[in-house]
Protein: Protein-export protein SecB
Organism: Halomonas dongshanensis
Amino acid sequence: MAEDNNAQQPGAQQPSGGSEGNKPQLKFSLQRIYVKDISFEAPNSPAVFKQAFKPKVNLDLNTKSSKIADDQYEVVIKVTAQVNDSETGTTSFLAEVEQAGLFRIAGIEGAQLDQTLGAFCPNLLFPYARECVDNLVNRGGFPPLMLAPVNFEAMYAQRKQREAQQAQQAEASTH
């Protein structure tokens, strides 16, 4: 657990020298935040504006990451919000945003790197995705869609648990 106490803040660098001079320096920096893809559809407009707005929100949230170059990673959060009328089921709108970030990460490997890409980086990007979805929906003529905060640590833990269960099932089926 002593290693956890040495975690660095984004953009900070671990001092070199001393007995830990052999270890690679921990480096983390957010280089760029950008919208990778954006889509908005209101297939039943303008008729949808003539009735009372009684939304039923279906939200889908996914993350993915890929290595771009040495120590450089792209992390993408995909938010899909489909809003239907709660009484008729008619689609009011569909908003989809892929919010991305380019990160430089060095000195972090294995499970710690996986957790950084799967939980920490999405936590940094999500406020930008929330704002983008909210703005997009508002520009479509609908009331703002204020997405609740997301616990990416819990999502990451659930994904890892599912992967472990699938591995156990696959191993059990081969014996």
